Amino acid sequence: MAKSGRGLDSESVAAATVLKRAVELDSESRYQQALVCYQEGIDLLLQVLKGTQDDTKKCNLRKKISGYMDRAENIKKYLDQEKEDGKYHKQIKIEENATGFSYESLFQEYLNETVREVWVEDPYIRHTHQGSGKQQQICGLQEIKESLRNHGVLLELEYSSSIHDREIRFDNGWMIKIGRGLDYFKKPQSRFSLGYCDFDLRPCHETTVDIFHKKHTKKI
C-alpha cells in the first residue's frame, strides 16, 4: 500500500538529513561513521521509493540511491583493505570538560553481533566511581561478575602489579587505546547531578582515544 504524501515527505527529509551528514563525514575522511550514515540514508530512500507513484520521481530516486550505494561500497572496500593491511587508525580527542563520550558512545560502533570476547587492560580502576580501595574493588567486581553470569556473560578477572598499558580489544579485531584508560570521567558533583547515571552528560578529563583494527587479536 502506498504511503501518504505526509509520510513520504517526513521520510524524504530524514533521508536528506542523514545523507547530508554522511557526505560531511565522508569529506572529513571519517569513513566508518560516513558508511553508517550512507547505509541508514539509503534504507530511508528505499522506503520513499516504495511509496512513490510518479515514474519521473522514481527514476530520480533510483539514480540517487545508486550513486550513494556506489560510494558506500567504495568506502566499505577501502575500510576492509585498511583492516586487512593493519593500517586502520582513527583518533578522537576528548577536550577538558567535554560531554557526550560515554562508554556506549565510544564502543557501540565496534561492538557488533560477531563479538564474543572482550579483553580489558587497565592499571588504574580505583577511583570512587569505578571502585574505591582494594577490598571494595574486589567486592564490586565480584558483584558485577555474578550479575553478568545471570545474563549468560562470563567475566574473568586477573590482577597484576606490573601492568602499565591501557587497552580494550574485541575479538572482531578492533583495539581501542584511551590515554587515561577507563578513568577519563570527572567525579560527579553529587548523586543528584546530571551525569551521575548518564555518562553522556558527565564531564571528562582531557584525553585521546586511538582506535585500530587488526586482523587477529591475541588473548591476554
Care to describe what's here?
With 220 residues, the chain is α+β, with helices and mostly antiparallel strands. It folds into two domains: 5-86, Phosphotransferase system, lactose/cellobiose-type IIA subunit (Methane Monooxygenase Hydroxylase, Chain G, domain 1); 89-216, MITD, C-terminal phospholipase D-like domain (Endonuclease, Chain A, 2-Layer Sandwich). It contains five helices and five strands; from the N terminus they run αααβαβαβββ. A hairpin with a 3-residue loop joins strand 3 (167-170) and strand 4 (174-178). The protein is elongated.
Salient structural properties:
220 residues; alpha+beta; Methane Monooxygenase Hydroxylase, Chain G, domain 1; Endonuclease, Chain A; 5-stranded antiparallel sheet; disordered C terminus; transport; cell cycle; MITD1_N
Would you spell out the secondary-structure blueprint of this structure?
Elements: H1 5-27, H2 31-50, H3 55-85, E1 89-94, H4 103-107, E2 118-121, H5 134-149, E3 167-170, E4 174-178, E5 207-213
Antiparallel strand pairs: 1-5, 2-3, 3-4, 4-5
